[in-house]
Amino acid sequence: MKIVIAPDSYKGSLESSEVAGHVARAFKDVHPELTVIQKPMADGGEGTLDALAAATDHKRQSIRLTGPLGDPIDSSYLILRNDTVVIEAASVLGLTLVPTDQRNPERTTSYGLGEAILDALDRGYRTFLIALGGSSTNDGGQGILQALGLHVQDKQGNPVGSLGKDLYHIDSVDKSTLDPRLEECTFKVACDVSNPLTGPNGASHVYGPQKGASEEQVNQLDEALNKWGRLLNENNMDTPGAGAAGGLGFAFLTLGGDLESGAKLVSEAIELEEAIKDADLLITGEGKSDEQTLHGKAPAFIADLGSEYGVPTILLSGSIEGDRDQLRSKFMSSFSIVPSIVSLDDCMNFASDYLYETSVKISRLWGHILERSKR
């Protein structure tokens, strides 16, 4: 018998690789004869790099680059065995890298992500998987493009900086100065939102406040992104996902990138479908599941893969809220790891124990059902 364990992370508590490890240990403790395959998942946001590192053959490349506040930081990217470079925006310009009292999208930059791409170009790589999500920026990716050679000027013809506030002063751009090696590149971009670059559903209005923008700043940034978009390529501004990660989606569209489902891209990179084909049971999960889980999140994508091959899927999450009937339309069964009414602190601090204990119960129940089916 073969079980595939492919959870997303329990954000703030356990990485996806840790979740997979605890579930696998529980099933092997109860049924030592089982074949258990661990395929930690991510949806293209924070944790994607670690999930891919845990599930694939890779090399990790360390790099010192410009952080979101303009200061040097140490970061890294992955090089997969097929020479695909994986760069995670959250590890370069993530909101978690900015102290709470310094969060202000006028003062953050995406420049470092462009530097990471340049470093990979210098090493001879041309195929990229970019994981968007969790960014602290709202600069439309102008920092990335400047790092890659784009000339940006104000009305007086002076170079413009790469912070979010510098968008206000951009009057002209020169795309002919972009690094010519970009023409040889393929960019697959993990993007699970459909926001356009600007407008009421755009980057500034929807995500700006989460990054520290005031109402006045939101309006100013939206206006600046509107001009930025028209200068670069007006046709890309309304493309679903252009507004992802503060407009980074738009920047990669400018580079000819393809915006795709983050869960799909990660599953392809870890060869998840191949593992599921002959599995008898599939287990996935996330920190909190509700009706929104069914709309583009990794567990729903995984359940759909399982359904294609007739493999039942169990949802095992930190907590489960909302309409469970809707979840049952996608998952054979759903479980919360929380054993009783406990505090949030206990949920976070004892997540590993709760997860293992619940997994043991599920594995015993599953074994009992199998035994009865053989009679």
Automatic annotation (TrEMBL):
<keyword id="KW-0808">Transferase</keyword>
<dbReference type="InterPro" id="IPR018193">
    <property type="entry name" value="Glyc_kinase_flavodox-like_fold"/>
</dbReference>
<comment type="similarity">
    <text>Belongs to the glycerate kinase type-1 family.</text>
</comment>
<dbReference type="InterPro" id="IPR004381">
    <property type="entry name" value="Glycerate_kinase"/>
</dbReference>
<dbReference type="InterPro" id="IPR018197">
    <property type="entry name" value="Glycerate_kinase_RE-like"/>
</dbReference>
<keyword id="KW-0418">Kinase</keyword>
<dbReference type="InterPro" id="IPR036129">
    <property type="entry name" value="Glycerate_kinase_sf"/>
</dbReference>
<protein>
    <submittedName>
        <fullName>Glycerate 2-kinase</fullName>
    </submittedName>
</protein>
<dbReference type="Pfam" id="PF02595">
    <property type="entry name" value="Gly_kinase"/>
</dbReference>
